[in-house]
Write a structure and sequence with these properties.
Layout (H helix, E strand, L loop, with lengths): L2 H12 L6 H27 L3 H34 L13 H33 L5 H4 L1 H9 L4 H8 L2 H36 L16 H56 L8 H37 L8 H14 L15 H26 L1
Helix pairs in contact: 1-4, 1-8, 2-3, 3-8, 3-9, 4-8, 4-10, 8-9, 8-10, 9-10, 9-11, 9-12, 10-12
């Protein structure tokens, strides 16, 4: 399969599916239904705050809040992708060498496999929530609200709402996670092409044993190749940094809410009184989906961070010592400009990468340990 076919498949998962009018209408209808339910339950949490009540309904509340934010950010995310991602195509895939095409193809295969797997997990999560269980009213706050305010319409409304879970779960995993990886895949081609051009600056003269310092043609060709690389790097960085700054606005809330969803499900598992055997499948699927989403964030963020480091490393290995002073000054400017790192940063010390993913996992396991210890003391 050609590289462009993999890109089209990933684009369908990330952009095209949300361009359908039916999907837009569905998301609008869901948001109109979801918003008052979230606000009402938030009010009930504040009015009747009890720890058991909060633990009981908080996981589904945060999950729906997360999905509501995903719906709200869908247009914003798609706009970033459509306007900015396709502006970074300094080089097209047709211009790449066979080796680069192979590397790009491998990247898009991984991205497509991740999207398919995460989508399958999200749909399994929707099915798991779609099938009724005896303890639904003890865990799903929507059923409790319907029982309190419109008991006569409860069954009808529930069966109308259940199919929307497929859309909700898909939006929850695709809007925040797929966009970063799709963006990362496009940047990967530009990175490989720029590294190839940097390695090609001296390629014509690699086997020449002696180069005259006054060889004007040699220095002119070096200048042309070097300036082309500088031009492409500046164009790439100026275009690439815009969506990164925009992504910083919404990635952090998604990260926090996703972590809270996972932690709250584990909290219910340890703290809820009574048997949870009928909820095991749901919880396993939810945790796996949240873990896959966290992995996508970490891999996508780390890939963007590695982009600038790999370009800088390739540039630092260029054999510049035969060049004239003008080309050396240009090279020094290029080196200083390439030292700036691409990052999705939350603060000066926190950015989206593997380290942040490990910190989140450690925080979740620490919370589990504390909850388990409290449970052991409670029953001892």
């Amino acid at each position: 399969m050609e590289v462009t076919n993999y890109i089209r498949i990933c684009r369908f998962f990330t952009v095209d599916i949300f361009e359908c009018r039916a999907m837009k209408c569905c998301l609008l209808a869901i948001s109109l239904i979801l918003s008052p339910l979230i606000l009402l339950q938030g009010y009930l949490f504040l009015r009747n705050f009890e720890l058991n009540y909060f633990v009981q309904y908080e996981p589904m509340y945060i999950l729906l809040l997360y999905m509501g934010v995903s719906i709200y950010c869908e247009a914003y995310t798609i706009n970033i992708i459509k306007i900015y991602i396709h502006q970074i195509q300094v080089w097209k895939i047709e211009e790449a060498t066979k080796e680069i095409k192979g590397k790009v193809r491998q990247t898009w295969i991984y991205i497509m496999a991740y999207m398919c797997t995460t989508t399958a997990l999200s749909l399994m999560g929707a099915i798991a929530c779609l099938v009724p269980t005896p303890r639904d009213e003890d865990l799903l706050f929507v059923l409790n609200l319907l029982q309190l305010y419109v008991p006569q319409w409860k069954n009808f409304i529930v069966w109308c709402l259940r199919p929307t879970l497929f859309v909700l779960f898909y939006v929850g995993v695709s809007v925040p996670g797929f966009a970063i990886l799709y963006y990362n895949g496009h940047l990967n081609l530009q990175k490989l092409m720029l590294k190839h051009c940097l390695g090609d600056i001296n390629a014509r003269f690699r086997h020449v044993e002696y180069i005259r310092w006054n060889n004007a043609e040699y220095h002119r060709q070096i200048e042309d190749k070097l300036m082309s690389c500088v031009k492409y790097h500046i164009q790439l960085t100026e275009t690439a940094l815009i969506p990164l700054r925009l992504a910083e606005v919404y990635v952090l809330p998604f990260q926090i809410m996703g972590t809270c969803v996972t932690a709250s499900m584990l909290l219910v598992f340890f703290a809820f009184e009574g048997s949870m055997s009928d909820q095991y499948f749901r919880m396993v699927i939810m945790v796996l989906t949240a873990s896959a989403l966290l992995l996508g964030f970490a891999v996508g963020g780390q890939g963007i961070e590695d982009l600038s480091e790999e370009i800088y490393e390739a540039l630092s290995q260029v054999e510049w010592y035969h060049w004239n002073s003008k080309n050396k000054k240009t090279y020094l400017f290029f080196l200083m400009h390439a030292a700036r790192k691409f990052k999705i940063k939350y603060s000066e010390n926190v950015s989206l990468n593997y380290q942040l993913g490990l910190k989140v996992v450690n925080a979740i396991f620490s919370a589990m340990s504390v909850i388990y210890s409290l449970q052991q003391k409670k029953y001892s």
